[in-house]
Every structure is written in structure tokens, then in C-alpha cells.
Amino acid sequence: MRNHIPEPLKALVDQLARLPGLGPKSALRVAMTLLKWPVAETRRLGQGIHDLRDNLHLCSRCGGLSAQDPCTICADTQRERDTLCLVAEWDSLLALDQGGFYHGQYMILGGLLAPLERVDADCLDMNRLLARLAEGEVRELILALGATIEAENTASYVRRMVREQYPHVRITRLAQGIPLGAEVKYMDKETLRQSLQFRQNI
Fold it and tell me: Do 91 and 39 reside in the same domain of the chain?
């Protein structure tokens, strides 16, 4: 069947199939849908993709995507300057900030340590983190990296590195444990272990 696909369509399908969550069949469905759109709509989509790289860049302070530098979060003078929340990716920043309960600064690490995928410390934005801490404003570094093995390894690495160079910075992490509405009997061992380890006074 692939031999019967016209070359321009095949080229687009191959590009779309490289996107997360899209295999060759899904990519073909997307391409066929685009062919059914009005010409003006497909051209607008194409222009939007083209302009994306020109109009978006990384914030020099936090590493987040922004149309301006620094981004609106880093430029906001109302936000607390002494707390820095470290996240792995930009979408984690969005999820935390949409809640409206955190009013400090952010830093995006650009991933998590994953030796099997050849992601080591050099692949992460450690230099930007150290530069922020060197400014002397940050009093607390909040590790919001998740609860996976990769997140735990990354948190340990960051904790060691920061304690060696900036011992005055308090290092905290998001509380982990049993989610709201869940029953203890359905929890896995690691969740139960962390629930006990990070138990709170009431």
C-alpha cells in the first residue's frame, strides 16, 4: 500500500509519524484529515509551525518556553525570589503553576538522569541551576521531579551537588505518598514506604 501513496503525502506522513503518540497509520489519518481542510486552514497551520521556532525561545533564567526573555514568570516582580522549584520539563512547570498555590521561581532541568537512555548529567541544565544559586537569592530549592527511579536518582544527584557548593540552601521535595481518594490496600510498596517516610504531624 505504501508504494501507492504519492510522494508529497508519504513525506508528510513520515514527518508526522516522528511525533510522540503517532505511528504510521495515525500519521496517515492526520495527513488525510489535513487534505480535507480548506486550503486557508492548512496554510495557517503550516505558517504556525513555521513561526513557532522564530517566535519561541528558551528563557535565559528558567529554561522555559517563552515569546520573551525573560519569560513572564521570571519577570514577575510579585513572585518570591527566595524559593526555586526544580522541574524536569516545561509541562511540569505549567501543571504546578496553573494550580496558583506556588508563588516562587522555577527552573527546568531539561530531563532526568537515565543512563540506559544515555542521559547523563551533561545532558541536563545543571549549569543554569548552579548559576541561579550563585546569585545568592535562593534560600530553598524544591525538588519537584516526580517519583520514578529516574527522578529519585536525579534528586539524589542534585541534592549532593547543591549541598557541596551551596550548603546554606535548604533542599526540600514535594510530599509523596497515598493520593487523595485512594485506599491503603491498593497501594504499591514504594508508595507505602514513602507515605510512612514522609508522614506528617496532625
Answer: no
